[in-house]
Design brief:
With 107 residues, the chain is of the alpha+beta class. 58% of the residues lie in helices and 13% in strands. Helix 2 crosses helix 5.
Length: 107
């Protein structure tokens, strides 16, 4: 059982869920499950999946994910490579997506 008595425990969980509360951010996490990628590669993968996102908008979404520690960034020259901060996040996102696709998942 998870201890929810400490106020900061629930607040951290809420922050994590807020950071994931965007189709673009969820799709980005799914793409990063396959390994580290630069913005251009993430953008191309999202476009291929039918979700066209401008580079500035994608960068803003990545910033939100970075600020919560869901994604980390490594700079190599002028290019920044992003990766999941924790593989567990990828499992959470993929499980949530699968659950939402089940027939009447909330009954």
């Amino acid at each position: 059982m998870v201890d929810t008595k400490a106020p900061d425990v629930l607040a951290k969980a809420v922050d994590l869920l807020k950071a994931l509360a965007s189709p673009v951010r969820l799709a980005t996490v799914v793409e990063l499950c396959d390994g580290p990628r630069c913005v251009r590669d993430i953008q191309t993968a999202l476009k291929t999946a039918g979700r066209e996102v401008s580079q500035p908008l994608l960068s803003q979404h990545l910033k939100v994910l970075r600020e919560t520690g869901l994604v980390t960034a490594t700079r190599r020259g002028t290019e920044i490579t992003y990766q999941l901060g924790d593989a567990h996040v990828g499992h959470i996102v993929n499980d949530t997506i699968r659950h939402s696709q089940e027939e009447d998942p909330w009954s």
